[in-house]
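Subject: for your reference before the review

Hello V.,

The reviewers asked for a structural picture of the protein, and I figured it would be easier to keep everything in one thread rather than splitting it across files. Below is the amino acid sequence we used in the manuscript, unchanged from the supplementary table.
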Amino acid sequence: MRMPSVKYQKGDKVMGRWPGSSLYYEVKVLGFDITSQLYTVIYKDGTELELKEQDIKNFAGFQTRSRSRSRSPGRRRSRSRSPARTTRRSSSRTAAAVAAAAGTDSSLSSSQDTRLKDALEVRLGPLQQTMPAENNSNNKHEKKEENNTANKVNEVEAESEKNLGRYNLRRRKDDGGAKPAAVVAEQQEKEAVKEAAPPASTLSTPLDFGGKIGAYFWLLFLPSWVLFLVLQVNLEDPSLFNFPPPLPPLEAFWDVQALGFVILWILFQALLYVLPVGKLSEGMPLRSGERLKYRTNGFFAIVVSAVAVAVAVHQGVDLTYIHSHFLQLAVASLLVSVLLSVYLYVRSHNAAPEQQALGGNSGNVVYDFFKGRELNPRIKDFDLKFFCEMRPGLIGWCLINFALALAEMKLHGLDAPSYSMILVNVFQLLYVVDGLWNEEAILTTMDLMHDGFGFMLAFGDLVWVPFTYTLQAYYLVSHPNSLSPLAVATIVTLKLIGFYIFRKSNSEKNAFRRDPSDPKLSYLKTIPTATGKSLLVSGWWGVVRHPNYLGDLIMALAWSLPCGFSHLLPWYYMIYFIILLVHRDSRDMSDCRRKYGSAWDEYCRTVRYRIIPRVY
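And here is what came back from the structure prediction:
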């Protein structure tokens, strides 16, 4: 059979039409798909599209016509539209949690389209070929997902699918290698794009979490569910299948002293955060190309917090107050998270378009309040999202667990906590310490890179983590469960296996992401993709697609086993975590298939199982 002719070859420099407009930009041909009859091209800023042949013009002929038009007597060229000028099209986004793909509004008014044509030149500079390699998988859960999901797929909504065909838009990370002259040009480009930027309401990805109606549901359900669990775990028979317990008097929900303790704890952690101790780490490139600086001294913070708690206990402070006022402390934390969310929503209206999160600018007040409109809200150098993500709630989790161990000893007249309580405390402390020791890894997670800071993250950081992840320790205070030495040894072994898989797989991924050409990593096998990234299929990443999820699930099982099998409530974290990771895996599969195309299909054939070998 005669193969169809290919007009443009790989490496050709041509002019590609931007979807939904009549504007052409300099692009480079990466390849041609015979099945879809589409060319894959790449723009100067790393954006990739699949274009039809009629949307591509020969570079030399197009350049001649462009110069001819530019010499027209009626054409007035300001300095900001110099022919030597290079510009680039800004991407409209970064999940998700949590989606990270931006939609380009194809229904811009004619006046906006005119401004866009005036602001953007069709003559772009040469393409940069050096692209970093990237691993393919997300890491763990809402608090410690350590994978690089910076490069997400932008879905281009064309005005007419019939005329424009199917587009597959991708953006890569800025490699930060621009020369001084290019830096000046890039700054001019940003100013031009900013002038032509669409309204903030268009800077939004497809709605997730059930959309606008879902936002109303989650705003009501999440706080109610936390209060239900806190009230249920106090019962003699804390079964999740029972009817909700009768509500206590309203005054039982509120305690001014509890609010004071919550605020004091947050201020104490904020003080530790701003101290000039620890490493100044650089975040991932934002849409503007900027890299923010973060003070990663979380391990220092938990060590100082532990010393402070030890001193307080030695001075006679009764930490069992946390157990007896658990409900009031949860309500106080909820109030703080709501007030913080209101502040974040109000201040987000003064944020520049490039500082806004593409997933939280739908134009609907409730949805945007829930998802968060501003990506990296800061008070000078104090990053509010990064601080809340790893400090008051995560370290508070360990503090609450320790207080519950003291409450168990006090309630049952013990000289030391039970084996079950010790295992839960030690396992979860190890988990938190490991996260803070490797705090820099959170800078590549979906929460930090893609999601805006709104109620979803504020509530999760300040309420959900410290008051639901401690339910196992809280359950053991009133429902002790004795363990034999063999049971203890078995559970410890299970925990160590899970931790090894989790840490080893993340170390493989992080080392590969930092320097794929490192000779020490030459044994790793990869699958190249059209984006210039590579999918890792060696080590633990050749066993399952998410080995870090597998390690997490094994550790979660080890946390729940010390509580026995009398009730389902202490297994709540395990159940919740399975649902969370399966949802993340499903979202990751969809995003990667759009991003990597046939390479992702090859990867799935190579690594068949998602999380659990031979099971799922």
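For the response letter, the relevant points are probably these. The CA atoms of residues 209 and 225 lie 17 Å apart. The chain has a mean pLDDT of 76.

Happy to draft the paragraph if you're swamped.

O.
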